Amino acid sequence: MKQIIAPSILSADFTNLERDIKAAERGGADYFHIDVMDGHFVPNISYGSIMVRTMKKITNIPLDVHLMIEDPDKYIPEFIDAGADLVIPHVEAPYDIYRSVQLINNLGAQAGVALNPGTPLCCIEPLIEQIEAVLIMSVCPGFGGQSFQPESLKKVRQLREMLDDLKPSVHVAIDGGIGRNNIQEVQRAGANFFVMGSAVFRQDDIEKTVKELKGVVESR
């Protein structure tokens, strides 16, 4: 399965966003990860669809949009119209996740779903045929720079086994505290889609860092 490095722009230097994006692009980034937070579903606020439009002017690399918001159906059309390629709402928010996934698919984008650390995998089993990715949060969402929770490895293993039985093509994505020190361990557990913020954009040489990370995951 393709190994995907997805730098999270939440950790980029917003005064030099294009510089950082182009450096990660030269390094071989496969996706750019855009965290959308509303201050309600998570205790922080980030940005809206204007960031997706801005990114589309900077890069042709696909964009995955992680919706940490309470009412995604209201905004999904706006994000897809702005250029989101993969849209990932959370299963925990107070809405019908199946309807959200259908909306994403009907509007021509790829759908994923995200799970917080305490959410069991059984919540997503009815959705697997409709999605292209499952995003496992290995930290409580809402802030960048948090430390990886090792218990997430068990969930990644279980998810990969579930998907291998039901729909092997679905990506196992992981977000939170992923970096050079643990990416191979997470990969061995079954992940193939690695979201990284500080581990990419807070390094001295972004291009070199992405190249090295890709080399690590592609060496297996």
Keywords:
globular; 8 helices; alpha/beta; eight-stranded parallel beta sheet; 220 residues; single chain; TIM Barrel
What does this structure look like?
The structure is a single chain. By secondary structure, the protein is of the alpha/beta class. It has one domain: TIM Barrel. The protein is built from eight helices and eight strands, in the order βαβαβαβαββαβαβαα. The radius of gyration is 16 Å and the shape is globular.
- Count of extended strands: 8
Separation, N- and C-terminal Cα atoms? 11 Å
Mean pLDDT: 93
Q: State the share of residues found in helices, binned by percent.
A: 25-40%
Specify the overall morphology.
globular
Secondary-structure element series = EHEHEHEHEEHEHEHH
Number of helices: 8
Strand content: 15-25%
What is CATH's topology name?
TIM Barrel
Q: Return residue spans where pLDDT drops below 50 for at least 5 consecutive residues.
A: none
CATH architectural group: Alpha-Beta Barrel
CATH homologous group name: Aldolase class I
Strand order of the largest sheet: 1-8-7-6-5-4-3-2
The domain count comes to: 1
Radius of gyration: 16 Å
Largest sheet composition: 8 strands, parallel
Q: Identify the CATH class.
A: Alpha Beta
Class from secondary-structure proportions: alpha/beta
